[in-house]
Design brief:
alpha/beta; Nucleotidyltransferase, domain 5; 3 domains; five-stranded mixed beta sheet; two-stranded antiparallel sheet; 49% helix
């Protein structure tokens, strides 16, 4: 097989170091191999990128290892290196031959012959939007965790609030939780905070009759403080996302017209997929990239179920 690249570097990425193999040579000849290591401190990464340029390297390939590849990409891309990020499952080395240098050599060999499928890396502006959008996702997950902890404390104190209301953190629910955090545990007093119409209003006092202790009150206060703090942070992130999405308002409004998609979700879709659909061959390729299309797993004419983690693309 004839090589399609002549000046290639493969990088095995770790938290504190990089193992690098450089292959230099013609398409139809055995390449010269050079191997070395590099620290992941910013200054060292810059020196390493310049060294690769001086060696004549044009194409660099690395695995998408956690978040460790991102600073390398951000530092080397402006130097003019053509960077390819590969999904680890697609470039796995032969078992029993795994060392850092062997992995980097394997990556360089695959890339030299054009056998690495590149991951989709958006432009810098969309990378920043992705960072904010994914941070927002983390915040919503943190809020859900806090809500679950509150529910556990309520159940521990035998407050069956979720039995009579559909949303413990609705308007009535928050009013009750705020009173609890202030030390009010009398069911009658708690019931006075319920000013909204709920289906099982006649059972409110029963549900709020409890065996709360000072420790329950302390934990509820701690959790409610955490809840309100996270909600404030979420509003700040939403504000920042909306500001960054101003140039793409027309696209967001179009996405917002789809049932089930609101403004923030539309911004999230834009942050992940960008405004340029030419990266995807067609709608089926886009669906596969988004992880919502069925994959293929056929052997001997029999189709088998895919494991969920195998269906999700890079």
């Amino acid at each position: 097989m004839e090589a399609i690249r002549t000046h290639v570097a493969g990088v095995d990425v770790h938290k504190d170091m990089l193992a690098i193999t450089v292959l230099l040579g013609g398409r139809d000849s055995e390449p010269k191999v050079e191997q070395f290591e590099c620290s992941t401190f910013t200054e060292e990464l810059m020196k390493c990128g310049i060294k690769l340029k001086e060696m004549g390297v044009k194409d660099v390939v690395m695995e998408s290892t956690g978040v460790f590849w991102r600073p390398i990409y951000n530092i080397w891309a402006p130097l003019g290196l053509n960077l390819t990020i590969a999904q680890a499952a697609h470039v796995k080395n032969v078992p029993g031959r795994k060392t850092d240098m062997n992995d980097s050599h394997w990556l360089a060999q695959l890339h030299r012959f054009g056998l690495v499928r590149p991951s989709f890396i958006p432009d810098e502006i969309f990378q920043r939007m992705r960072l904010l959008s994914r941070h927002r996702t983390n915040l919503t997950e943190d809020i859900s965790c806090v809500k679950n902890r509150v529910e556990k404390v309520l159940q521990d104190g035998n407050i069956k609030w979720s039995t009579v209301v559909s949303d413990t953190f609705g308007k009535a629910g928050l009013a009750v939780l705020d009173l609890l955090s202030q030390g009010v545990i009398n069911a009658g007093q708690l019931a006075t905070a319920v000013t909204t119409n709920i289906k099982r209003k006649d059972e409110v006092v029963k549900a709020l009759t409890n065996c709360f202790t000072v420790d329950h009150i302390f934990i509820i206060k701690e959790l409610m403080d955490q809840y309100y703090y996270l909600k404030d942070r979420l509003r700040e992130v939403d504000k920042e996302l909306r500001e960054k999405a101003i140039p793409y308002r027309h696209l967001i409004e179009k996405l917002d017209e789809i049932p089930g998609i609101d403004e923030i979700l539309a911004i999230g879709i834009l942050a992940e997929a960008t405004n340029d659909m030419s990266h995807f061959a067609d709608e089926r390729a886009f669906s596969a990239w988004a992880g919502v299309a069925a994959g293929n797993n056929e052997s001997a004419g029999k189709k088998k179920d895919l494991k969920p983690d195998l269906e999700i693309p890079t």
